[in-house]
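Our working data are protein records whose layout never changes between entries. The record below serves as our worked example for the rest of this section:
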Amino acid sequence: MWNDIHKRVPTTDYWLAMEEKLKKQIKTVQDLDGIKNTNEFRIFKRYAHLFDSSIVGHMHSGYYNPTHFGNDFTKATNMMEWRARAEIWGEYKIHPADVKMWMADAKTWLSKANTDEIYRVYEPIYSKAPRQPSLPEAQAADKEVLRKFMLDPLMKDKPLTDFHLADFSS
């Protein structure tokens, strides 16, 4: 997946692969809601989130301003992928200015696309989503989860302050 992100493989390719695996073309909101609990959608969602986060990082780096924001408009079959991505953008708190830039880009390619509707999907999800942790906060939380996962079976519910290397020696 990371290799695809670095190669800038469009999210549309993952969307089309998902539709192929599901043997179903997603044309309506009901179709989209019906596939959200499938592994295929989870793979698409993970890729789209990682891809978009990578794009945002590049956009704000000052070194590279991407002109390709994840969709292959020549392959796109409908706007359901954009709707799914709008939900992902809202859930992961992608900044509204970035989303508006992506919508403007889509409008240049797809003159008939209703990007206002897509933005209306994004807005309420964005406003309700919890604040995303900073990188140090996320790393600390990940370490705590990992520590509990690795140590709890060995420590038998001892507090982490009682940690001693001798507890693990045979």
Summary: Residues 135-165 form one domain. Residues 162-170 have pLDDT under 50 and may be disordered. The first helix runs from residue 2 to 6. Residues 13 and 146 are 33 Å apart (CA to CA).
